[in-house]
């Protein structure tokens, strides 16, 4: 869609403006219009928006069309203006056209208006496009000139006569001429004589118009000549161009001297790389590092001309010459020499890891003169790097100065990189061989250690195997006793064998530092008389000490002695053996500790089960004594109980005594060894009973040969219950774990005693309570008999018979107790029945019977809240239920009726029919017998009836 023409109207008549808009629309002109009336409004509108054309009336109240033209020419001369006015004179029209109007149209004849607008707008657009093109051309010419001036290559232009007309700064630099010097020269004067035929292919002077429009020169024989006469190779691009009616020729020339040199160097380097590849392929299979070094220095002269080539490796922080080749022959005088890395070209390369070339060693500040190579003029040194570290150096020397080109340097760098792989392989193979031997020693060592069954068997194996594997003469192992702040020589061989058992106080800082503060310490070439362990012992010349560390803590140290100095490999092996030995000792110690703890836990569990399941206090205390002796590895244990009534400790049980005096021991609290130990708040420990002047049971202790004693008070809630005593016939080495277990055993013993006392008290109190309960129940039953005017003894009789029958039917234990209580309380519900009904002399009415039948429910509501009597509810609640379901209160049927209630029902009826009542005499036995059989399966459980009738003769005696 064509964009609308933007029209600014300078018009004071709004009606005329609308007529113009209608005209535009009528003639299909899409227009965007705006109207202004004054000069200021015109200026503002021109600044506010871009307009395609301005239509101006000639006559305005304060403004004329000529004024509008002048404003437009001043503000926007690129915008056309047409005068649209009423009748104006010819002179005014001419002046308007001269002033800059594009056209004038009379308002009463607008026929030409739209075509004139379109023509004026198109002319303006064409002018703007031409101006833009002109400016672009000028900018392009300026840019082209700048490009030519800044070009890296020489840009030369000549006319048809071969005269140079353009010669850029790059050309001046390339040929050596200034701009003034080049003026008037011919291009042919810059061409080397041998290359003029190539120049002539592009045409000669005066015949250039027939030359091809463009041409590329990459002939290897194309050369130019500088002002100083130097001839140099070039490549060029030539092209002709037309400027006006003249033809010109331009050349872009590039000096390819350096490129050709680089290509030549690359060709040489490629040839060297083939040699390097061939050499390294042969060296890759050589795994003997010394043999490999010799072959390397022999191969270097094939890669780079030199008179001496050396290979050095870094050993113990210094450069050591492994092989040297001087004038094609091995130079053994250089092999083995060690050179510091702190000075010289060699040291610089070793430190920095960077290639270094000294073109003139006499002028190089880093060169270090060596008299064995007096003829060196230049030197090239290349680092050999693998695993991100400088491992060695290739050094080549020439008698000539400036002997090593960039190609030589690159070739040696590549060769060094290839050698790094071969040397690394050889080093790895050598290390692998050494490591395999070390692993074999470690494997033998580990196998020997695995043969140990416990911690005590490890030190002899550790010391003897280490001495054997290191081919040393002396060895010992020191263990730490943290609880005693002592270090003790646990095992020793060789000249140190007499030191077994020697102890050193670890509170001595010097001894502690010497023994354990460093993972490995080596003392080579010790002076005679300065033995590190014991003065006067004949020492070894060299001693190495490795700490035995487990979980970061020192558990001992391993010492090895020999006459020769210890090698690095021996130190590594010693460290490995110390680590493995420490792990083995720690592992076996942990295993023994775990087994011991499991045994302790098992012992405590057995004691706990005995306390929980056994009511026999003596049996539990005997178990505690047994476990104490077995787990703590002591000779004898006893337990004394405290009697509050006599304030004495009395022997209860014991184990491990060979005499009988202990069994009758009684000791007043606070007196004697046991009496004082019981009164103490802590464990009493006597390291040597023999050192005491006097104490109770001294004679017995002497006869038993006891030395060590422990006494542990048995307390619960700070109340003394007794005393646990331990006796041993030698000193006891007790640690924290040993003491913790002893206190645990004592705690269990105190609990056992306390539980036994509480249980005895509970049994006694419970029996008393049961007696009180049962007496109360019997009292209730008698009270009910008196109120119900039953035959005296009815409740007791039916209770005894019911208990007997229940026992016959398999009811036992506590359930039988509940049966008895239920029988005694069978009619307790009648306490809620009014006396008028309960004691009525005659028959009861239906309403009275309904109330009477509520007594089982009343019994339930009275007994159920009493938790103690709740299990006895079966008889009071259900003894009026009938087998056929016609009973009350719940009309239970068959075996839904509790067994105790079924038993009681038949006994209650039997007793009632057998007894005299105010309203009838007692029945004879046969009549009762017949009635019971007749009610079997109706009122009574048939099985209960059969058993009752079967044992009825026996019931007469109850």
Provide key terms for this protein.
single chain, 958 residues, alpha+beta, 6-stranded antiparallel beta sheet, 28 helices, 32 strands, 20% strand, flat
Give a verbal description of the structure.
The chain is of the alpha+beta class and 958 residues long. Strands 14, 15, 16, 17, 18, 19 and 20 form a seven-stranded antiparallel beta sheet that branches. Strands 8, 9, 10, 11, 12 and 13 form a six-stranded antiparallel beta sheet that branches. A six-stranded antiparallel beta sheet has the order 23-22-21-26-25-24, with helices on both faces. Helix 2 runs parallel beside helix 3, helix 9 runs parallel beside helix 12 (406-450) and helix 10 (289-303) runs antiparallel to helix 12 (406-450). The chain is flat.
Summarize the structure.
By secondary structure, the protein is an alpha+beta fold.
Helical/strand content category: alpha+beta
- As an assembly, this protein is single chain
Report how far apart the termini are: 131 Å
Shape: flat
The tally of strands reads: 32
Which percent range describes the beta-strand content? 15-25%
Instruction: State the helicity in percent bands.
Output: 40-55%
Low-confidence runs (pLDDT<50, min 5 residues)?
A: 204-209, 528-536
Radius of gyration: 64 Å
Characterize the largest beta sheet: strand count, sense, and whether it forms a barrel. Answer: 7 strands, antiparallel
Number of helices: 28
Average pLDDT score: 81
Please outline the helices and strands.
Blueprint (H helix, E strand, L loop, with lengths): L4 E6 L3 H13 L4 E6 L2 H10 L4 E4 L2 E2 L2 E2 H11 L5 E5 L4 H10 L3 E4 L6 H38 L3 E5 L5 E4 L1 H7 L3 H4 L13 H5 L13 E4 L5 E3 L5 E13 L2 E10 L1 H27 L5 H15 L4 E8 L2 E9 L2 E2 L7 E2 L4 H9 L3 E3 L19 E9 L2 E10 L7 H45 L7 H13 L3 E8 L4 E8 L9 E3 L3 H8 L3 E4 L18 E9 L2 E10 L5 H46 L3 H16 L3 E8 L4 E8 L10 E3 L3 H8 L4 E3 L11 H7 L3 E9 L2 E10 L7 H53 L5 H15 L4 H12 L10 H4 L7 H7 L2 H9 L10 H5 L20 H16 L10 H11 L6 H14 L3
Parallel strand pairs: 1-2, 1-3, 3-6, 6-7
Antiparallel strand pairs: 4-5, 8-9, 8-13, 10-12, 11-12, 12-13, 14-15, 14-20, 15-16, 15-17, 18-19, 19-20, 21-22, 21-26, 22-23, 24-25, 25-26, 27-28, 27-32, 28-29, 30-31, 31-32
Helix pairs in contact: 2-3, 9-10, 9-12, 10-12, 12-13, 12-15, 13-15, 15-16, 15-19, 16-19, 20-21, 20-26
